[in-house]
Specification:
Layout lengths: L5 E7 L3 H12 L6 E7 L6 H11 L4 E3 L8 H15 L1 H4 L6 E3 L5 E2 L3 H15 L5 E11 L4 E3 L2 H4 L9 H4 L11 E2 L1 H7 L9 H12 L1 E14 L19 H5 L5 H18 L5 H10 L7 H12 L2
Parallel strand pairs: 1-2, 1-4, 2-3, 6-9
Antiparallel strand pairs: 5-9, 6-7, 6-8
Helix pairs in contact: 8-9, 11-12
Length: 308
């Protein structure tokens, strides 16, 4: 199939401090054919001017969506751009809508596009027509790019190969800025509902339910931590071995998080009910219990998913 064009999605919002370093790393990719699709989310700094400067100098590399004054937030911005690329394939010169979300404050390794697309092409040859998502690990660095951890996956205690739908209902192991999605995935996943916790989590659920996820067990970029990240990296701390049983039983600090997971599962069930297997429907029904008003019910439901 050669080296088809990829759309890199770059939403910006008050990102002037690190934006040039990220854009320079995109332009330094050793993969030959890509276009950077940008949309500003209502910045009050120089982010739009920085993108306009690059676009004027390299019009073949940039497509800037006209500003509309709306602030959609991180997930909303990516959702908008995913739909935009799908609707404007021909204008963007895409044979198919292969897309890679990009944060505005990271630094990509120069081989990120090439390695991700090689994995995607192999996956598409093996599973033609299926929704597919390729993702990878990250280096965790501070705002000056000094190392914090060589592996985001290990730093956060993630298990990316445990990617059944049941597991994905409670644990997202796809970091959106490492992902490459194919058009079949976009057509199944869009539009991303307001109840989705994040765009990358929703994409992972759709790929897990109806297609395949493939993990590259090496860092693809430097993931910058600077105190203003939308999500960021937090070091995994295993529970204390001798923590008091009753303390763990009545610990309800994650109640709002579990309510969000229940809402996302309900939205997924509503969007894809007719396509789901009986086992998937049962898991999604059980996930609704994560939002129960009864603590013990929430605990038991969560435990059943984490054991998968």
């Amino acid at each position: 199939m050669g080296e088809p064009r990829i759309a890199i999605l770059l939403p910006t919002w008050n990102g002037e401090r690190f934006l040039r370093a990220q854009v320079d790393s995109l332009l330094a990719q050793d993969y030959p054919d890509f276009i950077i699709v940008c949309r500003d989310d209502g910045s009050r700094d120089a982010s739009p001017a920085i993108i306009a400067e690059y676009a004027a100098r390299l019009p073949q590399r940039f497509h800037v969506v006209p500003a509309d004054g709306r602030n959609l937030g991180a997930s909303g911005s990516f959702g908008f751009l995913l739909e935009y690329v799908l609707a404007h394939k021909a204008e963007l010169g895409l044979a198919s809508a292969w897309v890679m979300p990009s944060d505005q404050d990271d630094v990509w390794h120069p081989d990120k596009l090439r390695r991700s697309m090689a994995r995607m092409q192999a996956l598409e040859a093996e599973h033609p027509g299926l929704p597919l998502l390729v993702h990878g690990d990250l280096e965790v660095v501070d705002e000056s790019l000094a190392p914090i951890a060589p592996s985001f996956v290990r730093y956060q205690g993630l298990q990316p190969l445990r990617n059944s739908v049941a597991r994905l209902l409670v644990s997202n192991t796809v970091t959106g800025c490492t992902a490459l999605c194919n058009e079949a995935l976009l057509r199944r996943a869009l539009p991303i509902p307001a109840a989705a916790v994040m765009h990358d989590w929703w994409l992972a659920l759709v790929a897990g339910a109806f297609g395949r996820l493939s993990f590259i067990d090496e860092p693809l970029l430097r993931y910058r931590q600077h105190g203003a990240n939308t999500i960021g990296a937090r070091e995994y701390q295993p529970p204390a071995m001798f923590q008091d049983f009753w303390q763990r039983l009545w610990d309800d600090r994650h109640r709002e998080v579990l309510k969000g997971l229940a809402a996302q599962a309900q939205a997924f069930r509503a969007a894809h009910a007719a396509e789901l297997s009986p086992a998937q429907r049962r898991d999604l029904a059980l996930a609704s219990a994560l939002g129960s008003r009864f603590l013990l019910v929430r605990k038991l439901a969560l435990r059943s998913f984490l054991a998968r």
